[in-house]
Every structure is written in structure tokens, then in C-alpha cells.
């Protein structure tokens, strides 16, 4: 008599371990994407007399900078620059940050499929733990006599972009926050009063309108940057030819500029708003005039405007156009419950219409200014050398200029929207 064989039951992988595996894989892939171009430059003699360990440390520095980790540069003895022996190199290359973000986004979707409701935190905890450990290890390995990296910064900053990627990826897979955190927001909102729901709908529409204004202004700034690069393409190619970096060096330089491309778009947005930006201490680039000093040999800087611009003031219209789109969108959304509340308080329609429209412009402008300030803050950089410690726009100036222009545009867009939304009259047959 043969006994039936019992199939071994598979032991499911713990969620925290699966999180470690998923984001650990993302860390390895992102490190490889940095190591390959650095190795290509080193193999072609691009790092002079540096050995393999020094080149690997440079790759570690690049991986940390890609995640926004600041580096402390120590200058060799006898080479004091601007009266200092050290400097802070800090930048958040918004284009390169997308690499770990997208890898973590993929990991977040996979972890959401493997998790039950209220259990995603276990996978996220393991994922962020391994990414923090990798960041601390890279910071420890990359520290040498020329560059110092804080272990705390190396452990805490890289998980920020990875954590955002995991959360957005998990939400994209789940389709609702209730499946991730076990709280049904729609049911909670339905239990509130009607006035609270109206106020919430109005506030949410204002937030989305301001987001649209910032997004439209950024898109117009990207078009403006592309036009500037196209018009100054000859100057950019000339800088490439003077560098004589070879194929590997030119490729690495181009990849670095592409990684900073979103930063340059934000700088263009600041320029178009009138706030301008700086390329070194004492420099200023605005639509009215440009004053710059000696700049590093970066090809894309050949597209910078120089001197007094005769028609530069026209660029100030771009954020206003973005505000027009935001105000028009808010009218189409049909959630102006503040105007309805004012109409219940007084019968003077002309007064309630003016007050609600002006308040809309103030609210949208305030939020747009905060969004522009956040973008300006993220886009700022410091090379830690001499006067190149002040690169990028002033967040406060961007907030004031962009907020005012988008707010004015929102008022005009909302006021003009009824003229654009009229339905054509039908002719009787």
C-alpha cells in the first residue's frame, strides 16, 4: 500500500523581507546606473592618476548627490579658495532623483500587491530600512581626505525620494487609500455636515487650481528654455569642442546636464516671473538685465541671456497666462461655494461676484507662490567653491512674483470664463 506524498507547503516571505528585497534591488540598479559612466570615464583616462578605489568613491559621491545628500569638500593644503579651506557641495538634481523615485514606484506597486489592508507599513519599514543602510554604507565608503559625507545625512536623505516613490506606487496599484491604511476617507467625509463638505470642495478646487497654475507656468518655462537652447545651439557646441572631453567624458557631461534639466526649467520659471536667479554671489539674471561673472565650462550655460534684453519684459506674461488657465479651470469645476455663501448673505450680486473673484485670486496666488517657493528651494545648488555657493533663485522672491502674477491671471481667467463657456445658439429647423 502506497501512502500519498504530501507536498511541502511554501512558507510565504515576510512583508518586511520582501520590502528589503524590492528596495535593495532598486538601490543596486541605481548604483549601477551611476557606476557604469564613471567606470567608462576612468577606463578612458578621464580621472588622471586616480586608482580604482578613488574612482569608485567618486561613483559613491555621484550616487549620494543624485539623492540630494550634501558633501563637504576639503581643499588641498596651500589652495585656499576665497579665504576658506572647505566648502559645502549641495544640489538636488531633480532629473536624477527620478531614477530612485521610479524604481521605488515600481517596488511600491509590487509591495501593494503582496500586502493586505493595514499591512503595507511592514513592507515599507523594511524597504526604507535597507535603503537607509545602503545610504549610510555608501557615505562611509565614499568619505576620504577630499570629501566628507555625514553618515546621518547618508542614511536619512536617500529614503525620502524612495519613500515617496513607494507610497505613490502603492497608491497607484491599490487605487484608494482605504486599501492601504484601512481608513475610508469617502465614508468619513460623508459623515460630515453639508457646509463642511462644501467648504472642503471649495478648498480642494482652489488647491488643484493653484497646482494647475504652477504646472502650466512650469510647462511654459520649459518651452522657453527649449527655445533658448535652440537659438544658442552654436555657443553650446563651441563649449563642447573646447572641453575636448572625449566620447566618455562628453557622454557623462551630457547625462549630468540632463539630470539638472528640471532645475534649469525652474530657474527659467524664476527668470520669467521677474524674480530672476543667481549664478554665483553678486550675479543676477532677470528679464530686464543680466549680470554674471566667470562661469564654469558647462555647455548648457551658453544659452544664458546676456546684457540688457529689449523685449525681456514680455516673459512676465507667461505666469499670467498660466493663471488665466487656472481661473478658467476653476470656473469649469463649478465648486465656487464661497460665492454661493456670499450670495445668501446679501442680494448685491455685483459685490459678491467681485469679492469672491478677488478672494479666489488671493487664495490661488498664495498657494501658487508657496508651490513656486518650494520648487525654487529644491532647485538651488552650491558647488562649495568660491563664489559658486549661490546658484539658483531666491525662494521668497519667486513666491512673491509668481504668486502675484498667477493670482492676477486667475482673477482675469475666472472673470473671462463666462464669455468662453457660452454655448452656441441653435437655429430652429
TrEMBL record:
The chain crosses the membrane at residues 20-43, 63-82, 88-108, 120-141, 147-171, 210-233, 311-331, 351-378, 398-417. The keyword Nucleotidyltransferase does not apply. InterPro entries: DUF6350. Pfam families: DUF6350. Keywords: Membrane, Transmembrane, Transmembrane helix. This is Uncharacterized protein. It comes from Arthrobacter crusticola.
